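[Discussion] Sanity-checking designs against the backbone

I'm trying to build intuition for which residues belong where. Below is a structure token string of 518 positions. I'd appreciate it if someone posts a full sequence so I can compare it with mine line by line.
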């Protein structure tokens, strides 16, 4: 049931009229039909407008995924406001930065995160109102706030260039940047990709990544665009996921490699009926070939790898199911070829194209590329040069146009599908009185793909243990960014201009592996 959309709000409008009784979202036993989702989105939009939210104003959301998350998302769309889901894994100062940087005027917060917001409430610079998912002594509940409003669609005008969602991505400076994704960005992605992913009316689809992640909100939007029945889980619990696959006869799901590993390790998988599955899409981090082979032997379905970034509205390349040949280990290392409407280049430091097979920075030209970074014109200009977006990933194209990721230009670590920038972790460790110098790298990890390692130079005469350093950092950054190990050295390798040679630091851990990402 292909539909054309001028903005995200049209998704629920069209399906609400065309298949009103089809379940759009299933969450913890609650089923929300497309008609009901369309209706409650209108109530949310009217409540936002009544709260003084003007078009393109940012609306912040801090909670794990639920059916209410999507009610809010599409209500924000109908109000032509901008959804900003805050990473709930962050430390309170990092959450504060995002809400303030976005200049959000209203904040929706889940019960689990009430204490966090109470802690930083007085430092929220623009938030005028807090709405609670759950009972709170001071803040109005989401249901009461929503249900005071009529279900009449406000039909506010929207433009293709209007921002729909703002995702925050970590940066090399240590401060997250808000990537603005427009209605046109989603309009470029959704029609072709949803068919590729076998999403269609009523297809049982799993949505298990968080809303602050393009793989969570974006995958949920894709499922809804296709008219699928989307089974949303609050968080990824392997036994629960396997139970849902069997009970709901799931056909399609998007996973990060760590999730694939956890499912394979779950004892329940031996008794689970997986026969309904048609496709597992994986991405957000490279999949170790041996793990992929194990998964292909257990799950009786096709596999697709996608490569993309938040800034490209998600997927831009595809390694299709037919290229998943267990005997072709080389092909399994590829993340596929550019899809419709996407052009790729491999460029050198001088900006010129690299020959076939030669490593350089991956550049993308597509209508899926973001509008820019929110209120960061210099960062936007560095990332988008002419029509081309520079990804910060290093790779090469083979003679057939298949893309291979080799390394990261900007040293980013991907652990369990989450992006971690060494600068953030280094900044947290540098302040410790015993630390003279520090470098943070990613090293291979069988469970998470990559793990964070800190390489530390101690000040003369200073004594400090790895546990003490990790404890120090824990007070300053999110837990998933903390070093899993700490090595002490006398000096860090640097080039003549003083830049730390992180590739040299990584060598002992990556050895002769064909790629320097896991």
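Best answer:
Here's mine. Compare freely.
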């Amino acid at each position: 049931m292909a539909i054309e959309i001028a903005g995200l709000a049209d998704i629920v409008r069209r399906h609400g009229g065309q298949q009103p009784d089809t379940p759009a979202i299933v969450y913890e036993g609650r089923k929300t039909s497309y008609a009901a989702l369309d209706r409650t989105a209108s109530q949310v939009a009217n409540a936002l407008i009544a709260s003084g939210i003007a078009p393109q104003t940012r609306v912040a959301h801090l909670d794990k995924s639920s059916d209410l998350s999507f009610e809010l998302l599409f209500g924000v769309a109908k109000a032509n406001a901008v959804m900003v889901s805050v990473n709930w894994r962050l430390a309170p100062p990092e959450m504060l930065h995002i809400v303030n940087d976005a200049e959000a005027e209203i904040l929706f917060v889940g019960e689990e995160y009430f204490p966090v917001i109470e802690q930083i409430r007085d430092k929220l610079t623009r938030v005028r109102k807090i709405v609670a998912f759950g009972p709170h002594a001071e803040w109005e509940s989401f249901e009461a706030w929503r249900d005071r409003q009529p279900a009449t669609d406000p039909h506010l005008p929207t433009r293709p260039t209007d921002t729909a969602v703002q995702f925050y991505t970590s940066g090399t400076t240590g401060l997250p940047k808000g990537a603005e994704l427009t209605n046109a960005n989603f309009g470029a992605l959704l029609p072709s990709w949803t068919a590729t992913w076998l999403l269609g009316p009523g297809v049982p689809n799993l949505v298990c990544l968080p809303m602050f992640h393009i793989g969570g909100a974006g995958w949920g939007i894709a499922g809804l665009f296709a008219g699928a029945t989307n089974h949303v889980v609050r968080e990824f619990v392997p036994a629960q996921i396997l139970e849902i696959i069997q009970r709901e006869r799931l056909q399609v799901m998007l996973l990060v490699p760590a999730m694939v590993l956890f499912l394979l390790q779950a004892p329940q998988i031996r008794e689970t009926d997986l026969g309904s599955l048609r496709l597992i899409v994986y991405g957000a981090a490279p999949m170790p070939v041996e793990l992929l082979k194990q998964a292909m032997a257990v799950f009786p379905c096709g596999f697709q790898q996608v490569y993309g970034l938040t800034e490209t509205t998600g997927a831009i390349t595809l390694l299709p199911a037919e290229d998943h040949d267990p005997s072709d280990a080389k092909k399994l290392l590829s993340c596929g070829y550019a899809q419709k409407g996407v052009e790729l280049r491999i460029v050198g430091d001088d900006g010129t194209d690299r020959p076939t097979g030669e490593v350089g920075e991956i550049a993308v030209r597509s209508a899926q590329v973001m509008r820019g970074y929110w209120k960061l014109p210099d960062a936007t200009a560095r990332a988008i040069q002419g029509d081309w977006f520079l990804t910060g990933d290093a790779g090469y194209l083979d003679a057939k146009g298949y893309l291979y990721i080799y390394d990261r230009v900007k040293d980013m670590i991907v652990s369990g599908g989450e992006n971690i920038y060494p600068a953030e972790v280094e900044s947290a460790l540098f302040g410790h009185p015993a630390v003279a110098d520090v470098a943070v790298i990613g090293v291979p990890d069988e469970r998470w793909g990559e793990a964070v390692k800190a390489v530390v130079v101690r000040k003369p005469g200073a004594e400090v243990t790895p546990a003490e350093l990790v404890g120090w950092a824990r007070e300053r950054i999110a837990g998933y960014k903390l070093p899993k190990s700490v090595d002490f050295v006398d000096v860090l390798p640097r080039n003549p201009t003083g830049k730390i040679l992180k590739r040299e630091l990584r060598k002992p851990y990556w050895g002769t592996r064909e790629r320097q990402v896991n």
